[in-house]
Amino acid sequence: MARPVSSFRCTECGWTTLKWAGRCGECQQWGTVVDMTEKASLSRAVKPVAVIGSGIARPITHVDTTAVSHWPTGIGEFDRVLGGGIVPGSVILLSGEPGVGKSTLLLEVASKAAAAKSRVLYVSAEESVSQVRLRAERTGALQPELFIAAETDLATILGQIDAVQPSLVIIDSVQTVASGLSDGLPGQPSQVREVASTLIRVAKDRNLPILLVGHVTKDGSIAGPRLLEHLVDVVCQFEGDRQTALRFVRALKNRFGPTDEVGCFEMTGEGISEVPDPSGLFLTRGGVLVPGTCVTVALEGRRAMPVEVQALVMPSTAPNPRRVTNGVDSSRVAMIIAVLEQRADVKGLGASDVYVSTVGGIRLTEPGADLAIALAIASAARNKPIGHDVVAFGEISLAGEVRPVSSAKQRASEAARLGFVTRIDSGAGRLDSAILLALREPVSARDAELDAAFR
């Protein structure tokens, strides 16, 4: 007689094993391996169900789209990220580190929507009603159409939705809400999956937009099962440093708009405010030229923003010189230092401490900032400043060439709007020529022609 075999499966990735394990051997998630033993049963054929009325499939050209049009939230930067506003029936997940300002932003969204005569239900599963009221009073978000509830039970939240009949629901946060239909504590994968599935079904059935706040883990990813990101319609990430007032909202997933947009905000004592033109946040306008600074034009989504890169080169007595970066990729900086010393004749970098940082707390991840980083390091190494009217953008190859970058015309127009006269990009050809143009050193006949062309 065959002995029944117990099977365990990971609810995240589907990995199976014969013995229970606290950690999945495939996706390395904790607490996701469950017992999936089932009794053998005869397979039953699924019988078709008759579809009548509006449920019958119809041509896509006959589908009305007026019910899914965007309606603006009143916050332009948030609408930019969402693709024009909130779509009725959509579920939006906003994640971010603790204290970055997620609740403040969504309370501002709720206030703007309530001021437009739309009833809003704000469910706080982490704070009491009085605490939310104090924050709303401080940020000026008090509105008569804004309803507040402090609940952690999913069934009670659904009852609140039935009683209030809101046009917008905000739940802070999805990891602290529990359902009686699922075992486990709030925040566990089974609970998060059940809560999210129920809320998404309510949003689709009632054409009700729901905004969810999500926690993040130590590595910055959204806590809970990965299925949560697949179920929702929009996933936004709230980024920022506690030491600075600047905040960014990025769309990681958007079924109703682009995913390359970014919204800029600033945290103040009165709450959070949008920054439509952040061009002055990442530049230092000093009257004295200082070696080791260079301005580039970076692309955040489809927005071009000028960013100042600063570098400092100091002789080192340690056997392993330090490479300290802030706001830029450390491995990219190490590659640029090697190219500078090998291809552009910038000597002494291998025996010096190199510090590279950006102004304003912004992070540069695109290769278009390579040239500005290289020019800032070369300026600091040779102790020669770069003019205030110089802007540089381009990718640097290991052969020492300056390669073109995407959206060059948009970067150039933004630089011209801000008053930068000298533009150094892929037209310089090689990195050594770009350094000569930036530092205004004596150049050869070919470099003089390039210099004249850029002026």
UniProtKB/TrEMBL annotation:
In which domain of life is the source organism classified?
Bacteria
Pfam entry (one): AAA_25
Give the residue interval(s) assigned to the motif RadA KNRFG motif: 253-257
The record's section on SUPFAM superfamilies has: P-loop containing nucleoside triphosphate hydrolases, Ribosomal protein S5 domain 2-like
Q: Where does ATP bind?
A: 96-103
Annotated RecA family profile domain residues: 67-216
Respond yes or no to whether keyword Ribonucleoprotein is given for this record.
Answer: no
User: What's in the keyword line of the UniProt record?
Assistant: ATP-binding, DNA damage, DNA repair, DNA-binding, Hydrolase, Metal-binding, Nucleotide-binding, Stress response, Zinc, Zinc-finger
Its GO CC terms? cytosol
CDD domains (UniProt xref): RadA_SMS_N (cd01121)
GO MF annotations, alphabetized: ATP binding; ATP-dependent DNA damage sensor activity; damaged DNA binding; hydrolase activity; zinc ion binding
Name of the protein in question: DNA repair protein RadA
Name the encoding gene, please.
radA
